[in-house]
Q: What sequence folds into this?
C-alpha cells in the first residue's frame, strides 16, 4: 500500500501540477492566501446546510458565555447523525463583529469540547471545519485561559474513540485552527491555507512590521500542495474552477463526496485502532535530526561525526 | 319597521376622574401579568399556556406539560407507586402532607411516547426523594433501558430537606449512562438546576424562564446586592452559555422532535445487548431468590441492585 493510499487519499490529477512544479512562486502563494480569505468564500454555516439535511446548533460552554465565532451542533447526514464544529466568520460588518472575525475565545473551544464529549457519548462521527485567522489575541481571552482551552481541545480530540475528520475550508492559522484540527484525516480545500500563524502576525513578530506579510507568506508557504507534501494534510479537495467562492453548491458537493468516502473508510476500523493510528499520524509529522552525543574527549581525538537524517519520512 | 331612537346619557361617557383605577376584572391565574389579557381555560389550553398577545408563558402543570409534548400520542405512567413521605413532620405555611395530598389530586403521568419514536418524559417535578428515586430507576429498568430521556424541570422543594438532598446522588447515576438525555428547563432554581436540570446533553429554556441556582430574592436578601431586572432570565443565561437555546413553548415539541430525528438510529438489537444481559442476570437471580428464605433474598437483592425478587418491576 502506498503512503498516499494509506493516508486515505491522493492528490487529484487536476491538482497534480502544483505538486510537480516544485515550490510555488511568491505571487501564486499570495494569490492563494487572498482566495482563502475571499469574502464570498463559503463559510462553515454555508457548508452545513449543503452537507447535512438537518442541523441543530448547540450553544454555550456551560461556564461563562456562548462564543458565536465557533458554531457547533448535531447534524443529520445521509448515513446517520454527525457532530459538527467549525469556526464562523461573518459576511457583513455586524455579523463579523458579533462573530469576532472568526477568532474564537476560550469559551468557543470549551463549547467545542462539550460537543466532542457529546459525540463520544452518543457515538457520533465528528466533522470540524477550520476557517480562522487565529485564536482571539486579547486580554480577556488570556485571563480566561486561552492557551489551556486550546491545549485541552487538542487533547480531547486526540482521545476521541469516534471517527474525526478535519477540513480546512479557508485560512487555518495558529493554534486557533489546530485546536479543531487533530483528526484521523485532515482535508484541505484546494485554495485553503494552513500555517502556524497568519502572515500578518508572522510579519509583525519576525520583521517587526505587519506590512511585510507577503514576505512572511513566502517564507511559510502555507498552501495545500505544501501541506500535502509535508504530510500535514491527507487529501486535497478540488474546488470549482476559479475558487470555492464562485459556486458554493458545487464546492459543498465536492467536499461531501470526499467526506462520505473518508468516513466509510474510517468506520471500518475498530475505535482503538483508529485512535492509535491518529496518534501515529501526528507522531510522523515533523522534521528533526538526531546527532550522535559525543564526549569532549572524543571531540579532541576527532572521532565525533554528526549523524544526520530526516526523521519525517 | 320604523326607526326607534335610543337615548344616551353623555355624562356616562365622560372619562373617569384621574386617580381612580380602571375597572377591571380581578386578575387571576389566567390573566397575563405582562399585558393583562385574560383567557378562558380552554383557550389557554389550546394556546399551550402562551399569551397570544405578548407571548408570556404561563406556568403549566405536569399533566398539561406532558399532553403538550406528547401531542396526542400514547403514554403510560411508570412507577406510580412512588409517593412522597414526610420524615421531618415539616410544617411551614401548611403541613407538608397537606401539600402532598393536594398535589396527589393532580396526578402526573411520566411515560411518554413521542411521535413514532418512544422517549421517557420526566415531568416538571420539584426536587424530592421520591422523584430522585424515580429518576434513578429510569435507565436501569424496563421498559426504558435505552430510550432518550426528556426531562422538564421547574422549582425546588425544601420540605424534604436533607433526606432529599442526599437522595440526589442517586439521580446522578442516570447521567453516567449512555442515554441521550435532554432537558428542557422551565422556571428552574435551586437543587433542580444544580442537579438533573443542568446535566442534560441539550438544554432548552422557555422565554422569560428564571434559570438560576439562587433566586433573585434570596440573593438580594442575603447579599443586599441590587440585581439587574434580566438576572437569571433564560435569555441572559443563553448569552452566559448555560442553555443551548430559548425556545417558544409552541415550537418546543417540534424542536425536540427534530433533535430526536437527527440522533435517531435504526435499532438493530432492541434493547441494547448490555441492557439485555444485565436484565437477564437480574431476572435469573430474582427468580432464584423467590425460592429462597427472606435472609438470602436480601443478600441477592443487594448484589443485583435493588430488585428483591418480589417482582415489583
A:
Amino acid at each position: 500500500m502506498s503512503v498516499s493510499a494509506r493516508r486515505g487519499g491522493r492528490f487529484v490529477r487536476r491538482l497534480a501540477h502544483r505538486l510537480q512544479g516544485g515550490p510555488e512562486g511568491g505571487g501564486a502563494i499570495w494569490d492563494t492566501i487572498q482566495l482563502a480569505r475571499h469574502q464570498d468564500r463559503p463559510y462553515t454555516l454555508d457548508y452545513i446546510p449543503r452537507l447535512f439535511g438537518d442541523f441543530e446548533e448547540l450553544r454555550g460552554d456551560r461556564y461563562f458565555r456562548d462564543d458565536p465565532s465557533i458554531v457547533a451542533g448535531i447534524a443529520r447526514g445521509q448515513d446517520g447523525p454527525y457532530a459538527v464544529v467549525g469556526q464562523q466568520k461573518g459576511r457583513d460588518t455586524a455579523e463579523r463583529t458579533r462573530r469576532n472575525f472568526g477568532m474564537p475565545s476560550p469559551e468557543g473551544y470549551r463549547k467545542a469540547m462539550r460537543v466532542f464529549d457529546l459525540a463520544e457519548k452518543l457515538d457520533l462521527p465528528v466533522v470540524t471545519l477550520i476557517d480562522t485567522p487565529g485564536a482571539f489575541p486579547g486580554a480577556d481571552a488570556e485571563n480566561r485561559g486561552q492557551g489551556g482551552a486550546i491545549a485541552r481541545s487538542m487533547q480531547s480530540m486526540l482521545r476521541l474513540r469516534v471517527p474525526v475528520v478535519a477540513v480546512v475550508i479557508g485560512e487555518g492559522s495558529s493554534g486557533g485552527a489546530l485546536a479543531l484540527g487533530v483528526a484521523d484525516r485532515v482535508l484541505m480545500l484546494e485554495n485553503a491555507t494552513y500555517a502556524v500563524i497568519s502572515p500578518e502576525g508572522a510579519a509583525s513578530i519576525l520583521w517587526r512590521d505587519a506590512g511585510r506579510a507577503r514576505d512572511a507568506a513566502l517564507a511559510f508557504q502555507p498552501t495545500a500542495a505544501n501541506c500535502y507534501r509535508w504530510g500535514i494534510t491527507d487529501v486535497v479537495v478540488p474546488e470549482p474552477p476559479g475558487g470555492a467562492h464562485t459556486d458554493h453548491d458545487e464546492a459543498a458537493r465536492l467536499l461531501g463526496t470526499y467526506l462520505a468516502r473518508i468516513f466509510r473508510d474510517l468506520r471500518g476500523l475498530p475505535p482503538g485502532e483508529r485512535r492509535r493510528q491518529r496518534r501515529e499520524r501526528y507522531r510522523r509529522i515533523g522534521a528533526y535530526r538526531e546527532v550522535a552525543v559525543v564526549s569532549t574527549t572524543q571531540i579532541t581525538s576527532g572521532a565525533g561525526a554528526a549523524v544526520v537524517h530526516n526523521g519525517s519520512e | 319597521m320604523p326607526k326607534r331612537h335610543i337615548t344616551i346619557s353623555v355624562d356616562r361617557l365622560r372619562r373617569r376622574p384621574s386617580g381612580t383605577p380602571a375597572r377591571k376584572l380581578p386578575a387571576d391565574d389566567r390573566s397575563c401579568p405582562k399585558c393583562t389579557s385574560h383567557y378562558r381555560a380552554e383557550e389557554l389550553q389550546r394556546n399551550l399556556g402562551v399569551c397570544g398577545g405578548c407571548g408570556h408563558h404561563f406556568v403549566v402543570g405536569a399533566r398539561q406539560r406532558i399532553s403538550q409534548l406528547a401531542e396526542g400520542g400514547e403514554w403510560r405512567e411508570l412507577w406510580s407507586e412512588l409517593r412522597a413521605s414526610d420524615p421531618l413532620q415539616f410544617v411551614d405555611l401548611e403541613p407538608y402532607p397537606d401539600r402532598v395530598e393536594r398535589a396527589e389530586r393532580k396526578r402526573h403521568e411520566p411515560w411518554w411516547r413521542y411521535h413514532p419514536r418512544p422517549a421517557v418524559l420526566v415531568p416538571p417535578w420539584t426536587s424530592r426523594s421520591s422523584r430522585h428515586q424515580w429518576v434513578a430507576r429510569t435507565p436501569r429498568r424496563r421498559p426504558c433501558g435505552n430510550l432518550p430521556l426528556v426531562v422538564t424541570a421547574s422549582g425546588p422543594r425544601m420540605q424534604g430537606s436533607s433526606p432529599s438532598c442526599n437522595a440526589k446522588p442517586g439521580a446522578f447515576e442516570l447521567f453516567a449512562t449512555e442515554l441521550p438525555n435532554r432537558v428542557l428547563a422551565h422556571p428552574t432554581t435551586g437543587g433542580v438546576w444544580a442537579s438533573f436540570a443542568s446535566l442534560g446533553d441539550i438544554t432548552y429554556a422557555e422565554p422569560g424562564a428564571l434559570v438560576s441556582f439562587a433566586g433573585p430574592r434570596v440573593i438580594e436578601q442575603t447579599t443586599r446586592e441590587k440585581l439587574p431586572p434580566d438576572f437569571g432570565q433564560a435569555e441572559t443565561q443563553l448569552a452566559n452559555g448555560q442553555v443551548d437555546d430559548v425556545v417558544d413553548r409552541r415550537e418546543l415539541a417540534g424542536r425536540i422532535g427534530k433533535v430526536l430525528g437527527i440522533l435517531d438510529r435504526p435499532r438493530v438489537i432492541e434493547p441494547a445487548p448490555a441492557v439485555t444481559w444485565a436484565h437477564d442476570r437480574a431476572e435469573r437471580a430474582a427468580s432464584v431468590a423467590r425460592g429462597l428464605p427472606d435472609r438470602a433474598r436480601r443478600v441477592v437483592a443487594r448484589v443485583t441492585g435493588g430488585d428483591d425478587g418480589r417482582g415489583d418491576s
